[in-house]
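Sample pair:
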Amino acid sequence: MNSSRRISTHEREAALRELHVFLERGFISESEFEALEKGVKDAQTLGDIDVYLEELRAGHRARELRATHQERASAKRRLEIHLAEGQISQEDHVRRDELVGGAISAAEINYAFADLPGLKPARERRDDRFASTAERVLIAVVTVASLWLLNRIRG
């Protein structure tokens, strides 16, 4: 991505949305947000935007759970669908694809889909203590079969 290219309105809005996420999650204060917001609004190139956001992104990455290769690959396939359905332009697809490809956390992948309808973003982290539906069905079948066999042996 060319960091000296003039920033588009869409890219500026995406950067401002990213700042709002940092504010909402408590990573920056209201006064820090206001200063960064002004910088983003005044920025002329993508490089200028990166100056304001890169340090925040680096700190934010350290606080997030890491994304898997499978999550990134799945997100890239979903981006292809959004492109094919005309929900994003080729340029937007390239930008989002780069974001997903470089994503360290599931939250970064989710961010690439924040303003898109329909398709679900990267999986929400769930507590692994809870079995999937298939695992629960298997456990139930084995339990019923065991009880039936035990009943036949006794009877």
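Residues 1-63 form one domain.
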